[in-house]
C-alpha cells in the first residue's frame, strides 16, 4: 500500500493533506522519516508513526457513540447536526455511516462503521441482533405489559411485531425493552398500542455490546475487538 493512502485512510484526512504531512516529515515508517508519497508499506508489518503517534492499521472502523437528543442518524443533513459530525476527526473515515437509526429525540448507542458487509448482516431481518432500550413512560407500566409484549404485538392495525422482552425496573414509569427488529418508531408505537406514551428513550445495548457507561452524551470511542466478538451474542 502507498504511504499516502495509508495516512489518508487511517487518519481520516484527504490524500493531499496526507501528502503535505509526508513532505513536512511528519510521517515515520519503522522509525525513519518517509519523504515520498508513493513509498510502499506493508500495513500489517510496518510501524507507521503519524505526528509522533504509532497508528495500527485497521481495515474497518467500529465506533460506539452515545447519541444526544436532537442529533440525526444520517450521513448528511442540511439542517440538523448528524451523528457523524460529533465524531473526532480521526474517526471520520470515508464511508462511515450509522448502522441502524435512532429517532432524533432518542439517545444512546449508535453503532458507526465503514464495514458495509457487517452492517448489512447486523441489520438484516433474519439476523437481527438484540437491541435493548431504557424506556421512560408517561404512566406507570402495567404488569400485563410483560405478557402483551412477549406475545408479539400488532401495531397500527396490521403491523405484526416479533415477541419482545419487557423488564420492569424499580421505577414504575421506567422499563427495559429488548427487541429483535427495528421497525420505524417501534418502541414508541408499541407503547402507544399498549395505551401508554414514551417520554424518554435510550438505547443501551446492541447484541452483546453494551453502551459504555463512562461515555458522556455526544462522546464516542472505538469498539474493541473483544466487544465486537460479542456482537452476535444473544441472537434468537
Ligand atoms: N424505537 C423508537 O420508537 N425510536 C427509536 O429511536 C428506536 C426504537
Report on this model:
- The protein is elongated and about 70 Å long.
- Helix 1 (3-11) packs across helix 2 (15-23).
- The longest helix has 9 residues, at 3-11.
- It has six helices and 15 strands.
- The protein has helices at residues 3-11, 15-23, 116-123, 144-150, 186-193, 225-228, and strands at 27-29, 32-33, 48-50, 53-54, 62-67, 97-98, 107-113, 131-137, 154-155, 159-160, 165-168, 174-179, 198-206, 209-210, 220-222.
- It starts with a helix and ends in an 8-residue tail after the last helix.
- The chain folds into three domains: 3-55, RNA-binding S4 domain (Structural Genomics Hypothetical 15.5 Kd Protein In mrcA-pckA Intergenic Region, Chain A, Roll); 62-125 and 208-235, 2-Layer Sandwich (Alpha-Beta Plaits), CATH 3.30.70; 130-206, Alpha-Beta Plaits, CATH 3.30.70.1560.
- With 236 residues, it is an alpha+beta fold.
- The strands form three sheets. Strands 5, 6, 7, 8, 11, 12, 13, 14 and 15 form a nine-stranded mixed beta sheet that branches. The protein has a four-stranded antiparallel beta sheet with strand order 2-1-3-4, with no helix packed on it.
- It is 19% helix and 25% strand.
- Uracil (URA) is lined by residues 102-103, 106, 185-188, 201.
- Residues 102-103, 106, 185-188, 201 line the site of uracil.
From the N-terminal CA to the C-terminal CA, the straight-line distance is 41 Å
Count, helices: 6
What would you call the shape?
elongated
Q: Give the uncertain stretches in residue-range form.
A: none
Q: What level of helicity do the residues show?
A: 10-25%
Radius of gyration based on Cα positions: 21 Å
Describe the main β-sheet briefly. 9 strands, mixed
